[in-house]
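Entry:
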Amino acid sequence: MTLGKWLHNQWVSLQLRQSYFDEHDYVIVDLELTGLEPKKHEIVSAGWLTMQSLKIDLSTAGYMLNRNVTSLLQSPIYHGLNNTQLTAQGVSLSELLDGLAKVINGRVLVCHNAQLDWGFIQHAAKAQQRVIQPKAIIDTLKIEKHRLLVQGKPLKQQDLTLTACRARYALPKYSEHNALSDALATAELLLAQYHSMNRGSREKLSAIM
């Protein structure tokens, strides 16, 4: 990368972080996986929806199954999906990635545990020669972890699950391990986190990231 390109990227990043949270289009994505390691495990399904002007747009909801999964491992136990469903209702991994690229490119990507989900997306996109490039990435798990640490509260691993984080904002409990319902749950959590921060004033994107 040339110095000029690096400086341009830094300037774009600074401008983005100094913009207001409610100015951007967001896509909230959740993946169901066969495990936790992108090099060894696979994407089983992906669910997403978008958000604009602090409003979740349910009409944009999307859900895809990956029919190319080679081994479900323990997935049927956790996700309730089996090979018959994947074969009958699924699309190829390349089609699933194309669907993700369509909604992610040019938007701010939101995940609960972005390191995990974005890691799988990046690995699969590279293997399938796809380009998926969000404008920025927000992690609701990271937001909540920071908030609790600032409050001086001791943290256990289970304190940062999507369900546990939602409970602290009195959000309803949804069924887990469905990519689309978890994407919606993450979107609602992000809005709750934002409103707990802004105290009636507009927050910049940097305050959330």
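The first strand starts at residue 25 and ends at 33.
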